[in-house]
UniProtKB/TrEMBL annotation:
Binding annotation for heme: 675
Membrane topology per record: Single-pass membrane protein
Family according to the record: Belongs to the cytochrome P450 family.
One BP term from GO: brassinosteroid biosynthetic process
Localization per record: Membrane
Species whose genome carries this gene: Senna tora
Name of the protein: Abscisic acid 8'-hydroxylase 4
Keywords, sorted A to Z: Heme, Iron, Membrane, Metal-binding, Transmembrane, Transmembrane helix
Entries under InterPro entries matching the protein: Cyt_P450, Cyt_P450_CS, Cyt_P450_E_grp-I, Cyt_P450_sf, MeTrfase_7, SAM-dependent_MTases_sf
Taxonomy, superkingdom: Eukaryota
Recorded GO MF terms: heme binding; iron ion binding; methyltransferase activity; monooxygenase activity; oxidoreductase activity, acting on paired donors, with incorporation or reduction of molecular oxygen
């Protein structure tokens, strides 16, 4: 204001000198509310009175329009008006015409810009362009509106925060917003606000350079520029040398707060309200069931397609409603819960009865005979048949085979400019699973399996639309092809050409043969064998590949962990001396690497929640669950709960030095549905980690998740 004072005075002098004015309108756009609000008006009145007195003219009638956003505290301004009028009369005496001050709330722009929180050095060009062109269109609209409001010959003093460089991405231009952005992200990490809210927040602010202002005025055409000046102002608002750093800091914070507080409040405040309302929900879990019939299906589907992934749907609601919430997806009620107590109660069937249930479309893709879709009794039977396949006797040769695959794959890496870890891991796990389950490890058949399994996996996350061309339809077709391959393999084995195979398929068939003469014993049918082989591929391939990818990312980002890991692994190699294939026993000599694997599984929570269905009405932790509701144990929230793991977002394998709390580590589930392949998965992760650490000293890793 003090900087603009001279310019304002000059404008008034010119206006009054060149016009006989009986009534003068003065608008203070963005007047704010506080001790400084009427200072500008007071200075203008003073200037008008002064110049008219010198010209020996009567002081014109003054109509002052105070403008700011609707949220501005105009009441506060009006309360101070009587004292203001009295003071004016005292100071100006008789040379003071009538003065009417009114409030004109509202924005002097239209709707503002889109983008990130603000421009930054790393902003894509499109964001910078969006801000700049938004400024141009707002500024032009602003000038046009003023030109309609003002009388001919009227003058406007425009005081803007600007920048001295043509480039809006210089640190000086963006620094405060960078800091604010970082502060908001800290709140996101603490779970106090939603990341989505930060993403959708665009600072409605733009500091133009002189050239942009000039260009805007010329382009709009209603005004002529009499003077254009730039002043440098300290961001702490003064040059008080006596002030301590703390006081300067406070002043900076207050200055920034004056500008951004209302912007932030209107954008983020609803979230606080939700937290307050949470406890009123009674004993039915809180939540929004969305619109009739559709529920929140569309939000769920949108989350699946978004880059953040499907868990974002759960995370946002968890943030809004707390540890328990309910929603409606595809016509069914789903309750999500994220406490260790509820995990124990549900996964162990401690309260009421819960059975595993996947949504119909997933069950259709894995097949009606899969242990995932079986009734509780039948599940027990199938699981009992599959369980022996995962014994240490099977694991031992599997580890050696997987090690050979990894060594072979990594030896090819130096020939590439870069490797995508997720892709590499997926190729490896698919190869290893196909070999272990059905003895396929190369050639056309392997390629075919890889392709078809990928199609089935994709279909699991698609809308169950059965039209030609939809992802779900393609998944069903792929399932058929896999079933054909498996059927053919079973027939070949039965006709004798399966000799020498030592895979799961062979063992299941042999088991059936052995039991052939035992009348009482239930045997797995061919369809059951086929569906469960497919289930195991699906259950083991993507999950392990994703877990490996996350692990590489976490290790690469944590130098301290990497150093410790190196030390352990190189020590191990030194001890072995000769280059040899890893064995299951070797893996037991890698205690730190095992903790790295466990910590990666905790942080990544590859299987994010475990679905069950309530078979009867029951109550858990004071919340009622109705028969037929889907109940999901949200493992990821438990893994990232600061009351369960301190500093849960820090990658710290040493947190597993001691015993973990019961039901705090749910990467492989718990209870009667615990992952059958968990030792196999951990072994694959360890082997990969060992080979990566001991083969490559420094690689730029790339992972796509
Ligand atoms: C890092 C990799 C893996 C993770 C994180 C993982 C995680 C899980 C979880 C959380 C469950 C239980 C879900 C629930 O209770 O609803 C599960 C079940 C299962 N997993 Fe895994 N898994 C992995 C690898 C594997 C592998 C390699 C195989 C086998 C080859 C496998 C086979 C299975 C099977 C068959 C089930 C169903 C068990 C049942 O319903 O009785 N998984 N897995």
């Amino acid at each position: 204001m003090s900087v603009a004072k001279t310019a304002t005075k000059e404008a008034i002098v010119k206006t009054v000198c060149s016009n006989w004015i009986e009534s003068m309108g003065i608008a203070d756009l963005g007047c704010s509310s506080g001790p400084n609000t009427l200072v500008a008006v007071s200075e203008i009145v003073e200037a008008v009175c002064g110049i008219t007195r010198r010209l020996d003219r009567p002081c014109p009638e003054l109509k002052v329009y105070l403008n700011d956003l609707y949220t501005n505290d105009f009441n506060n301004i009006f309360t101070s008006l009587p004292a203001f009028y009295t003071k004016l009369k005292q100071d100006k005496g008789t040379h003071f015409g009538p003065c009417f001050i009114s409030a004109v709330p509202g924005s002097f722009y239209g709707v503002l810009n889109k983008g990130k929180i603000y421009i930054s050095e790393s902003s894509p060009e499109s964001v910078v362009d969006a801000y700049s062109s938004q400024f141009q269109s707002d500024f032009l609209m602003f000038l046009k509106c003023r030109s309609q409001e003002m009388v001919k010959g009227g003058r406007m003093v425009l005081s803007l925060i600007g920048r001295d460089s043509m480039d809006p991405t210089t640190p000086v231009s963006c620094y405060q917003w960078e800091l604010l952005g970082r502060a908001l992200m800290i709140l996101v990490a603490r779970g106090e606000i939603e990341e989505e809210k930060v993403d959708s927040f665009d600072a409605p602010y733009y500091a133009p350079c002189m050239e942009e202002v000039k260009l805007g005025v010329e382009k709009e055409g209603s005004f002529m520029i009499e003077a254009l000046e730039a002043y440098e102002i300290d961001w702490d608002g003064g040059d008080d040398k006596e002030m301590s750093h703390e006081s300067i800091g406070e002043r900076v914070a207050r200055t920034i707060r004056a500008v951004v507080e209302s912007m932030l409040e209107s954008h983020f405040v609803w979230q606080k309200r939700w937290y307050k309302n949470k406890s009123k929900a009674g004993n039915i879990p809180p939540g929004n069931e969305g619109i009739p019939f559709v529920g929140e299906t569309l939000h769920f589907m949108a989350a699946i397609r978004s880059t953040k992934g499907v868990y974002e749907f759960v995370r946002l609601r968890r943030l809004r409603y707390g540890k328990w919430f309910k929603t409606k997806i595809l016509g069914e009620t789903h309750v999500f819960m994220s406490s260790m107590e509820s995990g124990r109660a549900i996964l162990n069937n401690e309260v009421g009865k819960f059975s595993k249930r996947y949504i119909k479309s997933i069950a259709e893709l894995v097949g009606p005979h899969s242990l995932l879709s079986a009734s509780p009794r039948h599940h027990k039977f199938i699981r009992g048949r599959l369980f022996p396949l995962f014994s240490t006797t099977s694991l031992s040769p599997f580890v050696q085979h997987f090690d050979q695959l990894v060594v072979q794959a990594m030896s090819a890496w130096p020939r590439h400019d870069f490797v995508v870890i997720q892709h590499q891991a997926l190729m490896l796990t698919c190869k290893a699973m196909c070999k272990m389950l059905i003895g396929i490890d190369s050639g056309y058949q392997l390629e075919m399996m890889q392709k078809q399994v990928a199609c089935v996996c994709e279909a699991m996350l698609a809308l169950p639309l059965r039209f030609t061309g939809t992802r779900f339809y393609k998944g069903l077709q792929a399932r058929k092809r896999i079933m054909d391959i498996l059927e053919k393999a079973i027939n070949e084995r039965r006709s004798g050409s399966g000799c020498g195979h030592e895979d799961f398929l062979q063992r299941l068939l042999a088991e059936n043969e052995n039991k052939f003469n035992e009348e009482e014993v239930e045997r797995l049918t061919d369809k059951e064998i086929q569906d469960n082989i497919l289930t195991m591929i699906i259950a083991g391939q993507d999950t392990t590949a994703n877990a490996i990818t996350w692990m590489v990312k976490f290790v690469e980002e944590n130098q301290g962990v990497l150093d410790k890991l190196m030390e352990e692994q190189l020590q191990f190699v030194k001890k072995r001396k000769t280059c040899h294939i890893l064995t299951l026993e070797d893996l037991n000599e890698m205690p730190y690497a095992s903790k790295v694997v466990k910590e990666s599984l905790r942080m990544a929570s590859v299987v994010q929640w475990f679905p069950r269905v309530a078979l009867e009405d029951c109550e858990i932790e004071g919340f009622k669950i109705k028969k037929g509701w889907n109940v999901n144990v949200d493992a990821r929230s438990i893994h990232l709960d600061p009351t369960v793991y301190s500093e849960p977002n820090d990658f710290n394998p040493s947190r597993f030095n001691g015993e973990s709390k019961a039901y705090s580590f749910l990467a492989f589930g718990m209870g009667g549905r615990t992952c059958l392949g968990k030792n196999m998965a951990k072994a694959m992760m360890l082997v990969f980690l060992h080979r990566l650490i001991t083969t490559y000293k420094s690689v730029k890793y790339s992972y796509s998740l």
